[in-house]
Write a structure and sequence with these properties.
By secondary structure, this protein is of the alpha/beta class. It is about 40% helix and about 20% strand. It has helices at about 20-30, 90-95, 105-120, 140-145, 175-180, 185-190, 200-210, 215-220, 235-240, 270-285, 310-320, 335-345, 360-365, 385-390, 400-405, 430-445, 445-460, 465-480; strands spanning about 1-5, 35-40, 55-65, 70-80, 80-90, 130-135, 160-165, 170, 195, 200, 210-215, 245, 295-300, 325-330, 350-355, 370-375, 395, 420-425. Helix 1 links the parallel strand 1 (about 1-5) and strand 2 (about 35-40). Helix 10 (about 270-285) crosses helix 13.
């Protein structure tokens, strides 16, 4: 099968969040299963192709958007079994300041989507499935069914849209439909691409993609409810027979405590009780924390979505009870100041790193006893899976992928034979602190249960194998319907 991923970011070249991880890891898994996988992504200024081998310019063509005509240079690189195609245009992508957040993001990614479609006509293979991610490529299924419906090269291409973050809908003005995508305005007037009285490229993807997925079964259900859908429930209910929740996996090669080069001492299921503690001991010594106290960690963007107020309450409680709290992340200024205030109030029990360091992140996963992730909403989440891989027990709010990936300890049900973390349901400080108190109690007074939970976490399989098979099944349904 020839699969083309169209994504605004992809490891190891670009990343701001989980999308970059998913596009890379899923593509790599498809390649392992014998499929021809190509990833199409912008060539941002921050992308360093030379680090990964020699990139070759393979195509150059003009992209027409109404009165605009912009050149696109396509660079090819083969890495980890994946064919990468980078779409270059200096005006749109050769910028300082990150991948997103520019005043003309709508135009930038309209160019990207148009250029990706033209690339499908250039490559020396017939694309069977075009898998687009989030709003940036969301208009591609629409263009395939409207503009290219009679094109001999593209009319049979199957399309999948994966929704990673429903908050971002790709809003544009009505006239942008023709101005940027060369599409007729009746698509807005009849509601096909209209959302909140604007063009939404995400809505277009939901309307026109052959199948739609999101990154966990629970989040798929939440997106069909008024409360949890971020406004998308009606459109997704109309497509519910074509809408699936497939839990993300994680890259178990990158995150492997038995061979992780960043951590102080490697460990596995057989020797974790001694060697994992060595990681905690070294981290605490370097950062003036008591290694005999439980260590709770956060590795996260510091935004309201991640449950900042709950994190603060949990950290305040556990440090006053003698535990240690460590946070690595960046985000809104007020959020960073909130974390700094924890350190200033109680420096002997807090570690705060504002920013991001891959090395420190790995060390925190290995050193921590518990991993805090009380998100307001979480389509899938990756931190809780990595934490389990390192034997750090996640404390989560049971929403989205957190509910699907963590089996929460229940003292009444005595489920320590399968539990691999802790959790609570209501978004409240009281419930969050209660879950933290349970974790503290297990740490101090029930070491046998603690060790069983850690073993369960270490044995949890979050590989991409099962998830990739489910995506391939969706692809097969699409191709069968076109024959």
């Amino acid at each position: 099968m020839n699969i083309m991923m169209v994504t605004s970011e992809c490891l190891p070249f670009s990343k701001t969040g989980g999308l970059g991880d998913v596009a890379y890891s899923l593509s790599k898994e498809f390649s392992k299963k014998g499929h021809n996988v190509s990833v199409v992504s912008p060539l941002y200024k921050s992308v360093n192709l030379e680090k990964f081998g020699e990139a070759v310019k393979v195509y150059e063509y003009a992209v027409k958007m109404n009165w605009r005509q912009k050149d696109c240079q396509v660079y090819h690189l083969y890495h980890d079994g994946i064919e990468y195609f980078f779409l270059a245009n200096d005006y749109y992508f050769n910028r300082d300041g990150g991948l997103y957040g520019f005043y003309d993001d709508g135009e930038r990614f309209a160019f990207f989507a148009n250029a990706a479609l033209l690339l499908m006509k250039q490559v020396p293979f017939k694309v069977d499935i075009c898998h687009v991610h989030d709003w940036q490529g969301g208009m591609i299924p629409c263009m395939l069914k409207v503009t290219y419906k009679d094109d001999k090269d593209l009319k049979d291409v199957g399309t999948v849209l994966t929704i990673h973050n429903p908050l971002f809908k790709g809003y544009l003005g009505r006239d942008s439909l023709y101005d940027l995508y060369n599409l007729p305005l009746y698509l807005f007037d009849n509601g096909s691409v209209r959302f909140d009285d604007q063009v939404s490229t995400l809505k277009a993807g939901i309307k026109f993609a052959d199948k739609i997925t999101t990154v966990s079964p629970t989040h798929a259900f939440e997106l069909t409810t008024v409360e949890g859908s971020k406004g998308l429930w009606y459109d997704l209910v109309l497509r519910q027979n074509d809408f699936f929740g497939i839990l993300n996996g994680m890259d178990q090669d990158e995150f492997d405590p038995s061979k992780d080069k960043f951590i102080y001492k490697n460990y596995n299921l057989n020797n974790f009780s001694e060697n994992k503690f060595e990681n905690k001991l070294k981290f605490c010594e370097e950062n003036h924390l008591d290694p005999n106290a439980p260590l709770f960690a956060v590795v996260s963007r510091l935004t309201d979505q991640k449950g900042l107020d709950l994190i603060y309450s949990m950290a305040d409680f556990l440090t006053h009870e003698g535990g240690n709290f460590a946070v690595l992340g960046s985000g809104d200024y007020y959020a960073e100041e909130m974390m700094n205030s924890l350190y200033n109030r109680n420096p002997s029990h807090n570690y705060v790193y504002i920013g991001y360091s891959n090395e420190i992140a790995h060390k925190l996963y290995a050193a921590s006893d518990f991993f805090i992730m009380p998100s307001a909403f979480e389509p899938c989440g990756l931190g809780q899976m990595i934490a389990q891989r390192y034997g750090s027990l996640p404390i989560v709010r049971r929403t989205g992928g957190l509910k699907d990936s963590v089996i929460c300890y229940d003292n009444e049900r005595k489920n320590d034979d399968i539990a691999n973390g802790f959790g609570f349901d209501d978004y409240s400080q009281m419930e969050a602190v209660k879950a933290t108190a349970t974790a503290l109690n297990i740490y101090y007074s029930k070491k046998d249960i603690l060790n069983r939970l850690i073993k369960n976490a270490l044995k949890t399989d979050h590989s991409w194998n099962e998830s990739a098979n489910k995506y391939l099944e969706v692809y097969s349904w699409i191709l069968a319907s076109k024959n």
